[in-house]
Amino acid sequence: MKVVILGCSRVGAVLASWLVENKHEVSVIDWEFNSFRRLPKELEVKQILGMGADIDVLQKAGIAEADAFIAVTNSDNTNLMSSQLVKNKFNVKKVMARVYDPHRARAFQEIGLNIICPTISAAEQLKEFLMKKEEEE
Amino acid sequence: MYVLVVGGGQVGVNLTKLLLAEGKEVLLVEKDPKRYAQLADEFGENVILGDGTELGTLMDTGANRADVLIAATGADQDNLIICQTAKVLYLIPKTIARVNDPRNEELFQTLGVDATVSSTRIIGSLIEEKIDPGMAIPLMALKGEVEIFQTELEADSPLLQKKLSKLKLPEDVIIFAAIRGNEVIIPKGDTVFEEGDKLMVLAKKEGKEEFKKLFL
């Protein structure tokens, strides 16, 4: 599988490493060169320096031939805009954006985007943890 | 009319002043506390502190009552998401986005933003006009790859000396106005264009290319 990851954030770097170890082809885009330090040395990843919600940068990362696009920058809005750009302009099968703000996550899920909201997932895990403890005691 | 302006930079501030002077109800939304403090001195209750993409902020503004939202921040991604959230969550009838990268205009419109304004494109167009009067200067991008552009007729233009009905215009091209001095002419079949006329043309992408090849 060919995957373009926008944002060499912690989750972006972990995902990239896992994909490469499992023989997938990965390009990572970040606008700060320093962010690429999060990738393990010697890891075979195409590193693209540039702003993600930009068609030229996405093309340089090989979006036209990609099977999947994952937007995990630290900006909800950049993730939402770039994934909509990719969905509209390219024939990429799997597109997902990370959105921290639960309200925005819900709004864009409603209009058909694939969204992962770490805030909701974390709150749910915490809820589960707290409830479980109560029952045991 | 109730207008929300998001982003208290130069564009947002001057726009707010303009709208207030026209007697409109305006609320300016600024997310930086320092900038907000400066603006509050000038605009009083016409400005609030908050992030235009966050639900709480938009609720405080009474967003669902707004007729128009204008996203005027300096970041395209923020302006797009502000407009989309306004549409989806608050059903604001009209949204306008400032677009910094002109290549984003078409995408924004495809994604439901009602109108886009790109100062980059407008300034670029003005420069083109000063440099080369015989060019097709884009004025406005519309949905479905339709564009309005302007072109000034030079002495050797093949569009001169013939009635409009005799000109072989490409498909999907309409000349809908000609500006001659201070006069605006809405052309009919028997209109004959003159040197120096500024034509306003509505065309689809292919039509525009064809038009440029044949006449410019």
CATH topology of chain A: Rossmann fold
CATH class value of chain A: Alpha Beta
Shape assignment of chain A: globular
Give a count of the beta strands of chain B, DSSP E runs of length 2 or more.
11
Superfamily (CATH H level) name of chain A:
NAD(P)-binding Rossmann-like Domain
Estimate the strand proportion of chain A: 15-25%
- By secondary-structure content and strand pairing, the structural class of chain B works out as alpha/beta
**Separation, N- and C-terminal Cα atoms of chain A:** 47 Å
Radius of gyration of chain A from the CA trace?
A: 16 Å
Task: Sketch the major β-sheet of chain B.
Answer: 6 strands, parallel
Portion in helices of chain A: 40-55%
SSE order of chain A in H/E notation?
EHEEHEHEHEH
Total beta strands of chain A = 6
How many strands, what sense, and barrel or not for the largest sheet of chain A?
6 strands, parallel
User: Considering DSSP H and I runs of 4 or more, what fraction of the residues of chain B is helical?
Assistant: 25-40%
Number of helices of chain B: 7
Give the strand order, joined by hyphens, for the main sheet of chain B: 3-2-1-4-5-6
CATH architecture label of the largest domain in chain B: 3-Layer(aba) Sandwich
Share of β-strand residues of chain B:
25-35%
Explain how this protein is built:
The complex is a heterodimer of chains A (137) and B (216). With 137 residues, chain A is an alpha/beta fold. Chain A has a single domain, classed as NAD(P)-binding Rossmann-like Domain (Rossmann fold, 3-Layer(aba) Sandwich), CATH 3.40.50.720. Helices cover 44% and strands 19% of the residues of chain A. Chain A has helices at 10-21, 55-60, 76-89, 102-110, 118-136; strands spanning 2-6, 25-30, 46-49, 68-71, 94-98, 115-116. Chain A has a six-stranded parallel beta sheet with strand order 3-2-1-4-5-6, sandwiched between helices. In chain A, β1 (2-6), α1 and β2 (25-30) form a beta-alpha-beta unit. The model of chain A has no long low-confidence stretch (mean pLDDT 93). Chain B is α/β, with parallel strands linked by helices and 216 residues long. Chain B folds into two domains: 2-117, NAD(P)-binding Rossmann-like Domain (Rossmann fold), CATH 3.40.50.720; 124-215, 2-Layer Sandwich (Alpha-Beta Plaits). Chain B has helices at 10-21, 33-43, 55-60, 76-90, 104-110, 119-131, 205-215, and strands at residues 2-6, 25-30, 47-49, 68-71, 94-98, 115-117, 137-142, 146-152, 173-180, 183-185, 198-204. In chain B, the strands form two sheets. Chain B has a six-stranded parallel beta sheet with strand order 3-2-1-4-5-6, with helices on both faces. Chain B is elongated. In chain B, 35% of the residues are buried.
